[in-house]
Structure formats: C-alpha cells, structure tokens
Predict the structure.
Amino acid sequence: MAEKKGFEGFEPIFLETKADWEQENAGADRRPFLIYVYALDSSRLDIIATDYHFHTWERVVTVPELEDLRDDIGIGGTWSDFVEYLISSLSVGDVKLIMSGQLTSDSGAAHAKLIALKSKGLPRISFSLNRVINSSANDVMADLALSLFKACKKKQNEVVKERDHSTRLMGILSSERERNDSLQKQLDALSFLSKRKAPKSKTSDKPSIASDTLNNYDTMLASEMQESSEMPSVKDSQSVKISRRAAPVSRRAKVRGVSLQDTGDIDDH
C-alpha cells in the first residue's frame, strides 16, 4: 500500500532571522525578517518572509515539488521522515534569508532564497521566494499578523490550562497532605494511649495473682475441712469406746442371771 503524502497535522512555524545580502548590497539596511510556514491544505505549504517594510516574499510549495527537492538533496526514508526533517530544519535549524540584486524603483532586492540547515554536515533545504508588492504584500502581512496572534492566543490558552491543571493538582496534593497529617496524629494518639495502658496491664496482674492465691487457699481449706468432717470427733470416739465397753457388762449380767437361776435351782434342791 502506497504511503499517503500530505501535510495533515502540520503545525505552523514562526521564526525570526536577518537577511544576508550579497556583496554588491553589503551596505543595505538589515531589518529583521519574520518567517511564517504553514499548510494551506493537505497538499500545499505556504512560505512567507517579510520585514514589514520594503520586502515581502512568498512561495507556495506543492507535494510534487517537495518530492523533487527530496530527490535532489538525497534524503531517504519515508515521506513522514522527510516532512519531519523539513520541520526540524525550519524550526530548530540554522535558517538564513539570502537576498540579491537590486530594484531601482524602491532600492529593494530582486531575488531572495530561504536556506535551512538542520545541523552541520546534513543536507540543506533551499527555497527560492517570489517578491510580493503593493496590496498583495499588505494582505500577506495582515494575514501573517493575524495568524501570529492566533498562534500566541492558542499557546496562552494552553499555558492557562496547564496552570489550572497544576493548581488543581496542588490542591489535591495539599488535601492529601492534610489528610495524612490527620491520620498520623490519630496514630500517634493511639500509640500514646497504648503505651500508657501497658503498665496498668502489668499491675493488674497482681490482683489476679492474689485472687488466684486466695482461691487456692480456700480450696485447700475446704478440702481440709472436708477431710476433718469425714474423721470422727472425740465425743463420737468416746461413745464408740463406751459402747464397746458396755457390751461385756450386758454379757456379765446375763451370766449373773444364769448363775442366780442356777444357784436358786441348787438351793431349791
């Protein structure tokens, strides 16, 4: 599939430079020039250079013309690579405006050439410019001024948006810091309370130990009382002894009865 060639998404380029005159016009007035490069549509670039005084130059470059330029200077790669190289050369490279010849009517230059070099040793891009005069020049300068204002306004709006976004982020960051500080204070308070409660928990062990000792003592006392209750008392032991001693008495009484009865029988006889 063939690569689509055009200038979609081409951002306007504004730059300032001074004109270099050829030797015959070395003493000419060197006013700064404002250069403006933008896409007329997807297949054409418009290049404007003006000093808002005597000189205004313009050149409309088409895609086929740029392809020929690409072949002449020997830049390989894709079309997108070439457009990127062109933009870099015009925006951050060394850009010069070379003027030559002289018009007797207004002492202006007859020819002008825009040369852009991205860096030393790389291919040089060059465009011959056509002079614009009279009302056409006024229209070109007016359009350039309006475009420059719109570009500055756009940049200003972007800066404002970035500043507002930064302000919102700073507000969120400040809220998070306050929230973190509040949580840290709560954690510190809980840590302080836990440290204060720690000794009390140790002293509270003493009553529990004492109560355990008392409980053990009560248990021992209860067991001893139970054992003592199970043992016979002194009175009980005496009664037991008396009962044991009374048994022979009864037996003796029976013996006496028997003996008396026997003796009686004996006497009767």
Notes: Strands lie at 13-21, 32-41, 44-50, 56-62, 94-100, 111-117, 124-131. Residues 123 and 242 are 144 Å apart (CA to CA). The first strand starts at residue 13 and ends at 21.
